[in-house]
Amino acid sequence: MIDPVSGEDVNDRPRRGPSATRLPLLLPGSLSDEQRAVYEAVTGGPRAAGRTPPFGLADDIGRLHGPFNAMLYSPSVGLPLQDLGAALRFRTAFTKREREIATLVVAAHARSDYEWYAHERIGRRHGLTDAELDALREGRAPMLGDVRERVVHEAARQLAAEGDLADAVYTEAVATLGRAAVVELVALVGYYQALALQLRAFRVGVPDGEEPPAWPAGDPAGPGPGGAGA
Fold first, then answer.
1. Cβ neighbours of residue 169 under 8 Å, at least 6 residues apart?
2. Maximum Cα–Cα distance for the chain, whole Å?
3. Confidence band (pLDDT; 50, 70, 90) for 20?
4. Predicted model pTM
5. CA-CA distance, 72 to 79, in Å (whole number)?
6. CB of 110 closer than 8 Å to CB of 98
7. Shortest CA distance to 64 belongs to which of 117, 107, 23, 4?
8. What is the topology classification, in CATH, of domain 94-208?
């Protein structure tokens, strides 16, 4: 099979890495200038800055994990998409715990294996406990002592499950978080829902050697490689 982007026969590429993915993992040496700009924005941007990231952005031969490989296939969409993700992770009014609570609500609702794999690790780094993570994974409300965190959780849960905010939840969110933060929260939920859909459609699971999350019985998404959003 010839890759329409690189012109390479994908069957000649090394076979390490997730085998079920529908988009062949692109080698760094095969990238066009436009694809290289996306690659460098992901691997050289704030996701990779500071301490060692809690999960690898690429495999041992440089191919991107998770949603980032798909971004390379359409650089005109992939570059602003990764920048939106960086803005939502690093340039909002939320604390790191608040941000990860909202992201994990989306990952759990979508049964997105990769999204949970990555953000569970980020959440642990920023102080989420085993009990809190278990509750989020199982779709339960965690015991949160901080009022802002409780509001973020409930608003994210309602956005993910119902695609809307009831008047009472919206009013409480604005009063507690502020209008700007509510705008950011709606954008964050929508962004991670879009990634979960992309991950599912392209059959992207957790990296080789990693265990997928143990979702509760009665998965509404049904079976399939990588879960509902991988």
1. 154, 155, 158
2. 57
3. confident
4. 0.86
5. 8
6. no
7. 23
8. AhpD-like (1.20.1290)
